[in-house]
């Protein structure tokens, strides 16, 4: 900029004035194009909302409205062109080109970063591998340039690409770690937390407890829920070389729970467990509050919390009345996230059924038990052996049943060991509504 200014001063007054006028015209043209672009977005948005309202009211027959923007297969859901969203308002090619033009006309790293993130987001659903690869390559090139120039968000985003396996097809923490370190130095809280996790678990670097705690504290000072949760656990139980202090640990967990997100609901679960058993003079036993905390965590997608609620409503724990409907609901939430115990609990429900709530289904029981067994849950391995022995599922096969029993026995299930030794199995199906446990499950 200073060089440009000195050149302008060397010019005759008329030429300098003309250059200044040209720059002003270019700036006005750029602002005009941005304004036009925003107007197009707003018009498209209003049109889309009108169609949605008409569809909700049953006023639109989509087959008779082929010109609707929602009928265009190239339209993506990306209402305001931010990372993590897709474009619905303009067609893919129009949006991409407008975004590219604006990114090229400015040196604003934020806009350039948004363009790079948009290209990655927009490329994921594309079926054409060549177009998708071209978009990803262009995006990664721009992200590397921004990261090299010290843009913290680009450094963090690029690190996430390496850590998730997006960049190379498999996780590469050797590349991700230094990028997180750089971003954390620029004050990026999530990058500081990720750096702490790398030192904590030895990902992309050697394990270093002191540095892990250092970066956790740095992220926690910016109210990062994940860092506050990890510090809470570390301080509560005296991990990573930190002296145990239950009182301070609970304080960190409370702060984290207040900032909990779907990515970091863990403090809610930890506090719920603490209020189940209590800590003398620090945490009082409060079953109702535990259930409330588990519920908050389950709403954020925490599988272990949903499973615990399933248990509470099934067996009447923590002050909950037995309620098959709620039990099945929470088990399902957890099982959908492949929680082994929840998958097995659903198998048990399907094996006996619940009148008016869940129809009995051997087929479903087999499916959910198999999903739990695939996670090496010992009692699920045993159940698969029994199912295969007696013919619950696709076929009856004693040789396959023996293999399941061997796996269950190796995993520590005593019933499987007894079955392999020839001890008969009492395999009646008891009604859960009568508060009895199924012998097999």
UniProtKB/TrEMBL annotation:
A Pfam family hit: Sel1
Keyword Repeat included in the entry's annotation: yes
Keywords of this entry: Repeat
SMART domains assigned: SEL1
Chain intervals for the UniProt region annotation (Disordered): 1-25, 56-81
InterPro entries per record: Chitin_Synth_Reg, Sel1-like, TPR-like_helical_dom_sf
Coiled-coil regions listed: none
Compositionally biased spans, kind Basic and acidic residues: 1-11
Highest taxon, organism lineage: Eukaryota
Keyword Repeat: yes
Identification of the protein by name: HCP-like protein
